[in-house]
Design goal:
Order of helices and strands: HHHEHEEEEEEHHE
Distance between the termini: 37 Å
Strand order of the largest sheet: 3-2-7-1-8
Radius of gyration: 20 Å
Strand content: 15-25%
CATH architecture of the largest domain: 2-Layer Sandwich
CATH superfamily of the largest domain: Protein of unknown function DUF881
Largest sheet: 5 strands, antiparallel
Structural class: alpha+beta
CATH class of the largest domain: Alpha Beta
Number of domains: 2
Helix content: 25-40%
Number of strands: 8
């Protein structure tokens, strides 16, 4: 892993922390809602984009300060302050290990016999989908999570999660259910965020209806490792004909 300078870390950390509300991407499997009642995320995305724009301005200002400092000497105190800002943002951005209290949500496919389902049920309802995992992740970020793990991996705002069938693909690894999402932060606030989120509530409706699993547990003094994936953002490029 390439060692990051404090200057790069300041701007990267601010940018990443701005996107924490969303966790992973907000797209659903194949662009379709596989569980009825899922709300339209367009308004959530719009509101967060406005938040990110404000944080981007802060990142730009910090970058300007960094550039100015790099061009002159005798700025030890200011440089030290910026380094301290970088250090404080590093755990939240995922670059260092972090220890604290946690809330773990476990999602699992239904084990019920499909023949016992209520009339009009859909077999898709018995499986945990990408949109269900994302709903929990987004709710936990919104509840003030300082850091997050999916299964055994630390994730950040740019981590991409994909579900294929009943398997989850995260940073090149494939996982089978049950899926565990663990967030670090104020446990009461995290639980409240889960309770109040309409998408998570929609998933919980199917616990009794078709038997999918939803379990929430508290943990104490847990340590998350640093994020080990890439922080590079990749964009689609047009092709020349």
């Amino acid at each position: 892993m390439t060692r990051r300078s404090p200057w790069t870390l300041v701007v990267t950390a601010v940018t990443l922390s701005a996107g924490l509300l969303f966790g992973v991407s907000a797209s659903t499997s194949e662009g379709r809602d596989l569980r009825p009642g899922q709300r339209d995320l367009s308004q959530v995305v719009l509101a967060a984009n406005q938040r990110v724009a404000g944080q981007a301005a802060t990142a730009k200002r910090l970058q300007g300060e960094v550039d100015a400092l790099s061009k002159r000497s005798g700025a030890g105190a200011t440089a030290s302050n910026l380094a301290k800002q970088a250090d404080s943002l590093a755990p939240r951005a995922g670059f260092t290990a972090i220890t604290g209290d946690t809330v773990t949500v476990t999602l699992d496919d239904s084990k019920r016999d499909p023949a016992t389902l209520p009339e009009g049920s859909n077999l898709n309802w018995m499986v945990v989908h990408q949109q269900d995992v994302q709903a929990v992740v987004n709710a936990l970020w919104r509840g003030g999570a300082k850091a997050m793990m999916l299964m055994d991996q630390r994730v950040i705002s740019t981590s991409a999660v994909r579900c294929v069938g009943n398997t989850l693909i995260l940073q090149g690894r494939v996982y089978s259910p049950p899926f565990k999402i663990t967030a670090m932060g104020d446990q009461a606030q995290l639980r409240k965020a889960l309770k109040d989120d309409p998408d998570v509530a929609n998933y919980r409706d199917f616990v009794d209806r078709v038997g999918v699993k939803y379990e929430v547990e508290n943990g104490s003094n847990k340590t998350f490792p640093p994020f080990e994936g890439t922080t590079e953002l990749r964009y689609a490029k047009t092709t020349k004909k």
